[in-house]
């Protein structure tokens, strides 16, 4: 393994442990002072579900569950809605597109419900300002915890 990459990898475990040791909060109960950038972890009933990264933690967490958030900002709720409705196949035409799904009679109300669900989930976060370490830490946490709603797929 390249020594520079190994150094990155070896430095992830302490951040992972800080994340897991953080007392979970909800988006509604975020403390006044939180880090600006880093990774975050959504959990529900003790099960870790989704990890993400951002340079604006508070704003990003709020976007995941704000009632007015669309498919491009409430991505975790959108993924949950796809799973629940069984509409899992992506399409790149107008009919069935992400924007149209939010208007669908079945999908739209469920999307709203899932944004509320995400708002009530436990969330943890850890400070990480470096974009490279953020990306690696997001993958490290996802792989280590087996978060089912991360796929790192190209779209």
Question: Can you give keywords for this protein?
Answer:
155 residues; alpha+beta; three-stranded antiparallel sheet; 7 helices
Spell out the blueprint of helices and strands.
Elements: H1 3-10, H2 12-21, E1 38-44, E2 47-54, H3 57-65, H4 75-85, H5 98-101, H6 107-120, E3 122-127, H7 131-145
Antiparallel strand pairs: 1-2, 1-3
Helix pairs in contact: 4-6
Describe the structure.
This protein is of the alpha+beta class. The chain has a domain at 26-40 and 58-145. Helix content is 46%, strand content 14%. It contains seven helices and three strands, in the order ααββααααβα. It has helices at 3-10, 12-21, 57-65, 75-85, 98-101, 107-120, 131-145; strands at residues 38-44, 47-54, 122-127. It has a three-stranded antiparallel β-sheet, with helices on both faces. β1 and β2 (47-54) form a beta hairpin. α4 (75-85) packs across α6. The chain is globular and about 50 Å long. The two termini are 29 Å apart. The mean pLDDT is 91.
Mean pLDDT: 91
Low-confidence stretches: none
Our count of helices gives: 7
Shape summary: globular
Based on CA atoms alone, the radius of gyration comes out at 16 Å
Report the β-strand fraction as a percent range.
5-15%
Head-to-tail CA distance between termini: 29 Å
Which strand order does the major sheet show? 2-1-3
Largest sheet: 3 strands, antiparallel
Multimeric state: single chain
Strand-pairing-aware structural class = alpha+beta
Strand tally = 3
Helix content: 40-55%
Order of helices and strands: HHEEHHHHEH
Summarize it:
With 155 residues, the chain is α+β, with helices and mostly antiparallel strands.
């Amino acid at each position: 393994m390249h020594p520079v990459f190994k150094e990155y990898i070896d430095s992830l475990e302490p951040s992972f442990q800080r994340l897991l040791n953080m007392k979970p909060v909800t988006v509604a109960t975020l403390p006044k002072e939180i880090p600006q950038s880093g990774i975050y972890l959504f959990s529900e009933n003790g099960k870790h579900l989704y990890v993400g990264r951002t340079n604006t933690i508070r704003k990003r967490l709020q976007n995941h569950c704000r009632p007015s958030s669309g498919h491009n900002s409430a991505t975790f709720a959108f993924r949950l809605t796809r799973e629940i409705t069984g509409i899992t196949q992506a399409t790149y035409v107008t009919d069935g597109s992400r924007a149209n799904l939010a208007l669908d009679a079945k999908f739209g109300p469920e999307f709203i419900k899932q944004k509320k669900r995400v708002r009530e989930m436990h969330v943890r976060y850890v400070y990480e300002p470096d974009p490279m370490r953020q990306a690696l830490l997001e993958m490290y946490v996802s792989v280590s915890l087996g978060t089912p709603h991360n796929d790192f797929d190209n779209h």
